[in-house]
Structure formats: C-alpha cells, structure tokens
Amino acid sequence: MSQLVHELYAPIQSGDARPLAEEVAERLRSLVEQGVLRDGDRLPPTRDLATRLGVNRGVLLKAVRMLEREGTLRARVGSGITVVAPERAPASTWEPVFSSAIRRVSEAEASESAEPLIADFSRLAPDERYFPYERFADLLAETGRRERELWQYGDPYGLPELRREIAARLSRTGAPWTEANVLVTSGAQQGLDLLFKALVDPGDLVAVESPTYPGIVPLLRFYGARVVEMPVEGARRDLSAVAGRAVKLAYVMPERHNPTGVTMDAAERRRFLSVLGATGAVIVEDGYEPPASDLAPLSALDPARAATLGSFSKELVPGFRLGWVAADPRIVRAVALAKQATDLQTPLPIQAAVRAFLAEGGDVEVRRRRAEEVDVRRRALAAALARVLPEIRYLGGTPGESLFWLRLPAGTSGRDVARRARENGVAVSAGASFDPLGRDIAAVRLSVSRVPVDCILEGVARLARTLLKREPRAEAVAIPTI
Question: Has domain 131-360 been given CATH number 3.40.50.150?
Fold first, then answer.
C-alpha cells in the first residue's frame, strides 16, 4: 500500500503541451499496467485525489471519463471509481501501425464540465431558433418526390442548379464566377481539406494568419506543411515572413476575421495580394459568413490566384454540412479529383432542398432576424466588458459582428483561463486553439452568437472573477435595443 500511496498521490509535474487531463489519465493507466492498481481496487474520493495530484476536480473527472471509455476504470454513483484490469494480452499481440500523418494530429481536448454553463461564449454557430425547420422539411420532401434522380450518384462538382445559385451570389460581390468555377463540398472544412489534398505536399510552405481558424491547424499537421505565420495586427497582416519565399497555399479571412472579428480595408487587400502574388501561392479566401462590407473580395481582385471557400453552416444551419469552393477552373478540376477520391459527392437531396430554399428567398429572413439579435447581444457584451472588465482590451465587437478577441495580460495562460472559467460556469475559447503552432497565447475568444442577452452580464462577471480573482462591480448594465 505504501507504493500505491507514493505513486498515486505524487503531484503531476506537467512538462509538455498536452492537456493536463491526458497526463492524469496516463498516470492512472500506467499504475494499472504496472499492477500497482489492480482489478477491483477503488480509487480515493475524487476531491481528495485531485488535491493530492495537484489538479482541479474537473481535470480529474475528465481523465476518469477517458479511462472509462477505454475500459480501464468504472465509475458508479454511490460506489466510487473502481479499477477494471483484465488479464493483459501478451506483448506480441498485433497492434495497428498508423500513418505518420495521423500520428501528427492530436485529438482536441474535450470541453466538458461537471457544472452547468451560465453562458457559452465558446461557440460560433447560428442560433437555430431563427431557422424555419418545418418549411425546409417540406422542401426536402417535395424535391425528393419530384426529382427521383436525386437518389442516385451524381456529379462530384455538385448539383448544377445550386452551383449556378452560388456563382450568382458571389458574382454580385464582384467575383467573376460561373457554374464552371464552383464545386459543392460537404461543408467548408471539407473544402479546405480538398484544397490541401490538391495543392500541398509534405514540406510545402503554407502561410496562415496568426491567430487563425482552428480547423486549419490539424490539416497543417496532417499534410506535413511548414507554417509561415502572418501575424494579425488590427486590420493589417505582418507579411514580412512570406516576402520573397515560395509559398504553396495562403489561407486568409479578410472579412470578419475569426477570431479577432476585424475586416481588411481595401488598401490592405491590395497590399496582401501584391505580396502573396509574388510568392506563387494559391490564396484561399475563407468567406465563412456572407460579407458585411461592400469591399471587393480577393477573388474579385485576382480571380486567377484567389479561391473562395464558403459555407451555409453560419447562414442556415451547421447540420447541412454544405459548402463550396469557387476558383479558377484548373484548381476546381484538381479539387474535383480529390473529391471523387474522398466521398464521390455531397448528398444531392440536401443540395436540391437548399437550392429551393434559396430560390424562394427563405434565407433572407433568417439572416435578417439573426443579424438583429446578434447586434443586440454584441452591444450587451460590449457594455458588460466596459463596466466589469475595463482593463481588458479586445478586438472585434463591431456592428454586425459576434466575435470579441480579448487580449489578456502578458504571461497569462489563455488555456488556463478558459479551463477555470468553465469550472465557474462560463465557456470561452482559449487563444491556443487559434494559434497555428499551438502556443498558449494570452488571449481568449468570446462569441455571442448563441448566448441569450439576459445571461451575458452574469457570464462576464464570472469571467472577471476567474481572470482577476476578485469580485467585479455588479451594477446592472443597460441592454441596448435596436
């Protein structure tokens, strides 16, 4: 028992970039594998064990859930946590050997909490209450009955009618796209993956903004790309690291950049194209939401080099998994080959129903109602931050924008702030999620796209207690109206 007490209760000494819960899980798993913890042994109470390991109870519970899923522990209410250690197979038992690509991609840390959330500022997803599900279900049934060919294999480029609609919408922004320039994907994430498949070899230079969209980070690792950072400095990008280099692909969000919420002005767009054009890169312009400005997109300014990546996830609902790539026909052909090798096609019934929904203007009312609500929430969050956390600077939070990029004091762990805030009932996104190299930067992102107005002030107050370790001023904040 003395060995058990010594090895089990020794504090965790975190020495790498892995989530702390994984380190705790590895400690407990190792003790089981070594026979220190045996089948049927009960672990100490979670609060006691967490204290002795030097971690919070939420981290310990997350580690326990990991080990439950793999069958090493069993947790039962009233019975505590029990070790499950069946006879181990011989060391010579076959194990799959995974590719170097999949080994480079680490699983995202689960954002779980034992406590209910007061405010979830972590999600950039549309509020589904404003989508007319009944009408869309009718359209799905109607198109499915009327167009039987939708139930067969189709063109990997996508439904021609939907491609024409997407091209027409993009052309209204100045991009010279036609149906031939558009390929429909299973969400914008697949579109980005297909562009990597078509363009990027291991060791190629890929230029990304810093901070950047979290979904590109695992792709950079999976495809073995070498990252060139373009630090975001307000509405400008520091392009000094890309100048004079051969870059294969450059990923950029000129409109409502995620996570900072800042939009490039016209001069910065021209400068960006000039510098990146000299590198030879294909420029991937992510328009994850319809543009809010009247500025010409990069694809309108340089259609040969700039590819547009888009999605209906933020405009309609994420569950459709419907997006597109619009680009020079040579790039679209290469992406179509990658698409055929991936999933053959995006489901035609969903494409047809979305096309019918757009044709009758159903998306216009959805966007209007959501935009009004987001603006009310945006102003409420801006007012709450000004009153409760005046010392914290942020980017974003401009009219029509749901994102707030909070810059924390130098040396602050954004990952630790996000973890402790969640334990206090508030979810925010750690800056590390948006860093192309996975560094724990001193920032967090807040989104109001799904947070009810009456929860915003309390959410900010709890975030302040987490961040500043003091009781913030709790005076009521007036909620702006439209």
Answer: no
Which residues does residue 182 pair with via DSSP β-bridges, in sequence order? Answer: 326
- Residue with the two structure tokens 């070498």: 226
Buried b (16+ CB within 10 A) or exposed e, 152-176: eebebbbbebbbebbbebbeebebe
Task: Please state, in angstroms and rounded to a whole number, the distance separating the CA atoms of residues 449 and 378.
Answer: 9
Tell which residue, 24, 322, 46, has the closest CA to residue 187.
322
Cβ atoms within 10 Å of 455's Cβ, excluding its own: 19
Question: Per residue in 433-477, pLDDT tens?
Answer: 999 998 999 999 999 999 999 999 999 999 999 987 644 444 433
- Note the pLDDT tens digit of each residue in 299-327: 999 999 999 999 998 888 888 899 999 99
Q: Is 86 helix (H, G, I), strand (E, B) or coil?
A: coil
Q: What is the pTM of this model?
A: 0.78
For residue 132, what are its two tokens?
Answer: 């007319």
Query: What span, in angstroms and rounded, lies between the C-alpha atoms of 272 and 253?
Result: 12
Span 2-95: which CATH code? 1.10.10.10
Give the E-state strand segments of 106-253 in sequence order.
119-120, 182-185, 205-210, 226-233, 236-237, 249-252
DSSP reduced 3-state for 282: strand
Give me the residue spans of the domains in the chain: 2-95, 119-125+365-468, 131-360
Residue where the block lists tokens 């695992």:
218
